[in-house]
Specification:
This protein is of the alpha/beta class and 488 residues long. Helix content is 39%, strand content 13%. Bound molecules: glutamine.
Length: 488
């Protein structure tokens, strides 16, 4: 049965249409796989009743020859998406037991195209982190192990439950969210594929907000084409999100073309910091050669403000987070601490002190500091200006090239417990992913090779605003050339 969960979406869809198996069998295989992989802690809750009901509906449509885009496909849903009547906590204690009255637009779209929710995946609390070690449900374990150590590794973050679930073949794909790298970095750490689409492609309605000007939903899957299929399913205009893009969703999957003749690919020199490991550099060079062989012209480019991106991100994102998280006060949602409470303010304070974890508190402190009257101009306003310069870097580069090739993360997956002495060490994980987030442009992670320890390494393809097609095309060329068949 578990072999069914190893199929790609494309293969599973074909098998369903040929009646080789039913959606019900596919869903049961997935539920069993999740049960057998409990030690990974990838799911915080499974939703078998919903999944089997959706499977029955999918089977009925398939029988009538009316299959929809994702009919019958098991998907993990990051716990940051509000799902009606199902725990939606962003893995925070402050939203413990919270069951929303409504469905997020992304999951609504997923269900309307036949996708099946297997359960909610674990994540860093409020999507803040790069290692899935800040969840109130505990750490997620990467299904990959280093050749040279028996230590448990992190699956990346914040969509670590989603990446682990896809890598361990528990589901065909999973939904993630990416504010500064939370789809791409976990994809790189687990040998999976993930795309952060252009800002505005997917509605943020019903996504528990972290940093609203950066948050984007997107898929993690095992192939480029599968990512394109899921993105087609979940993207689209939504009147309930004023920043959602009012444009039709292209048929990316059908149009993927790995022949890059006539395309120019930029190699940004700023993504080559002094400390970049030799094996990552070698992989990046290999990727460059692969794209050349696929017909592309390689062009060195410069994005001069890249070195400020991480600092800018860690001002903008916490500022927005501190504002977004103000709503969690013990009155409206989730946890309410009343023991020994002397006043309303006291209840707010005690609830927030108990409900938020250390990393979330750190972000709220940073955010309120940079937004405070005395420091607003020095930090927040300046960060906004630098953000504009970073966007301009991309605009100027994209006058010369169609896409950029870079590494996804500076290292392979590390052991649980590492990089924890100092939060700044952890923040460095995002050095290659935050610039595209600040500029709102689409970016995809594709597994491209293994480290000397036998761990996956990813390359990142960054595209022009709203040009996901080129991102998929270039990613597909990398996927074909890399032929990444290693499994955890
Ligand atoms: N790791 C980054 C952070 O901690 C990005 C998180 C994300 O993209 N949600 O903020």
């Amino acid at each position: 049965m578990t072999a069914l969960t190893s199929l790609s979406i494309k293969e599973a869809s074909e098998g369903l249409k040929k009646k080789q198996f039913s959606a019900k069998e596919l869903v049961n295989a997935s539920l069993t796989a999740v049960e057998n992989a409990k030690h990974l802690n990838a799911f915080i809750v499974t939703t078998p009743e919903i999944a089997l009901k959706q499977a029955a509906e999918a089977d009925a449509r398939i029988a009538k020859g009316e299959a929809r885009l994702l009919d019958g496909i098991p998907i993990g849903v990051k716990d940051l998406f509000c799902t009606k009547g199902v725990l939606s906590s962003s893995c925070s204690k402050i939203l413990k037991d919270f069951k929303p009255q409504y469905e997020s637009t992304v999951t609504t779209n997923l269900f309307n195209t036949g996708g099946i929710m297997i359960g909610k995946t674990n994540m860093d609390e409020f999507a803040m982190g790069s290692a899935n070690i800040t969840s109130s449900y505990g750490n997620v374990i990467n299904p990959w192990k280093s050749k040279n150590s028996t230590k448990d590794l992190v699956p990346g973050g914040s969509s670590g439950g989603s990446s682990a679930a896809v890598a361990a073949r528990l589901v065909q794909a999973a939904l993630g969210s990416d504010t500064g790298g939370s789809i791409r970095q976990p994809a790189a750490f687990t040998g999976t594929t993930g795309i952060k689409p252009s800002y505005g492609r997917c509605s943020r309605y019903g996504m528990i907000a972290f940093a609203s000007s950066l948050d984007q939903a997107g898929p993690l899957a095992r192939t480029v084409e599968d990512c394109a299929l899921v993105l087609e399913a979940i993207a689209g205009f939504d009147a309930k999100d004023s920043t959602s893009l009012n444009a039709p969703v292209p048929q990316w999957a059908k149009n993927i073309n790995p022949n890059l003749k006539g395309k120019k690919i930029g190699i940004p020199k700023e993504y080559m910091p002094d400390g970049l490991s030799a094996e990552l550099k070698a992989l990046w060079d290999k990727g460059t050669e692969w794209l050349k062989a696929a017909g592309a012209e390689i062009v060195p480019v410069s994005l001069p403000h890249t070195k400020y991106a991480l600092a800018t991100y860690y001002i903008v994102a916490p500022a927005e987070a501190s504002s977004n998280l103000a709503r969690f006060d013990g009155m409206r949602y989730g946890l309410r601490v009343t023991d020994g409470v002397k006043s309303l303010d006291d209840m707010y304070a005690k609830t927030r002190a108990e409900g938020f974890g250390a990393e979330v508190k750190r972000r709220i402190l940073m955010g309120t500091y940079v937004l405070s009257a005395g420091y607003y101009d020095a930090y927040y306003k300046k960060a906004q200006r630098v953000r504009a310069l970073i966007s301009r870097d991309f605009e100027q580069a994209f006058e010369k090239v169609d896409a950029l090739l870079t590494p996804t993360a500076p290292t392979p997956a590390f052991a649980i417990g590492e990089k924890m002495e100092d939060p700044l060490t952890m923040y460095l994980n995002d050095v290659f992913t935050v610039p595209a987030s600040l500029a709102g442009v689409p970016a995809m992670a594709v597994p491209a090779g293994l480290s000397s320890d036998g761990l996956p390494l990813g390359l990142q393809i960054i595209g022009k605003l709203y040009d996901e097609q080129t991102v998929f095309d270039v990613s597909r060329a990398i996927e074909l050339a890399a032929n990444f068949t290693a499994k955890p």
